[in-house]
Amino acid sequence: MDIQWYPGHMAKTRRLVLENMKLVDVVIEVLDARIPSSSRNPEINKIGGQKPRLVVLNKSGLADPEKTRLWLDLFRASGFCAAAVDALQGRGMREIPALVRELAAPKMAELASSGRRSRAPRCMVLGIPNVGKSLLINKLVGRGAARTGDKPGVTRGRQWIRVAGSIDLMDTPGILWPKLEDREAAFRLAATGAIKEEVYDFYAVAGKLARWLAENRPEALRERYKLDLLPSGQEELLEAIGAARGYYLSGGVVDTTKSARTVLKEFREGRLGRYTLDEPGSPGIASS
Length: 288
Ligand SMILES: Nc1nc2c(ncn2[C@@H]2O[C@H](COP(=O)(O)OP(=O)(O)O)[C@@H](O)[C@H]2O)c(=O)[nH]1
Ligand SMILES: [Mg+2]
Prior knowledge:
CATH class of the largest domain: Alpha Beta
CATH superfamily of the largest domain: P-loop containing nucleotide triphosphate hydrolases
Structural class: alpha/beta
Order of helices and strands: HEHEHEHEHEEEEHHHHH
Radius of gyration: 21 Å
CATH architecture of the largest domain: 3-Layer(aba) Sandwich
Bound molecules: guanosine-5'-diphosphate, magnesium ion
Number of helices: 10
């Protein structure tokens, strides 16, 4: 599995985010609850700097609830404010503005004591592609939210939106690059759909995922694909799944390419169950 990210793109991405960072009081770092460590940008602590940060574990409806609780505890123990949400189902979203307000309170008090005009705290959503930043912003903003045009903005077109009557949210998220040097993290990013299919071998990822499921949740695989026995090899697993589904090529050969697509798709849709691929406690969550 060889997954690339382009350095030019990465430098530009970092610059854009850092410029916008100057304007905000609170950073909302969005992670995928299924891979809270692998979906983290490797330089987030440098980029997030000293700004108060809310860590949001999104897509929690697809993740193992017990492991999500453990991950939240770990983030909190590392000094972060953390919340689990599901932007698609709308779960946990209502608490976000209050948490942002709480995190911004010291800064707001400082502004007030220095005699500055009071204003709403400003926040920005940050994260690697596909963790649900856009959906989260849309759900926070909802319909009919007022755009406040008289605020500073680095890039033209960037706007602040008043959310829940009390915080200003930058309407465009800060996009960070994924952690691809770590092969295991890259596999988990690919398996959950965080990186584009053009840049990895979906067949290898599906095979490895089938193996992971066979080892960790054999009953889920057996039940979903009506299998009595689970072979131990990746190729054999994809063959068994294809045969069970009736995916045959001419000559009676199992179409394992089709099984690979099926496993990936059904895993990502949560049809195989709720999983967290990053064990709570994996490295990469240290506070700045
Ligand atoms: N199941 C589930 N899917 C989500 C959630 N949030 C986002 N998605 C889906 O994940 C994909 C990427 O979301 P998007 O907001 O475009 O991610 P972005 O690249 O970070 O802006 C879309 O298909 C969303 O519908 C969530 O909480 N639960
Ligand atoms: Mg987006």
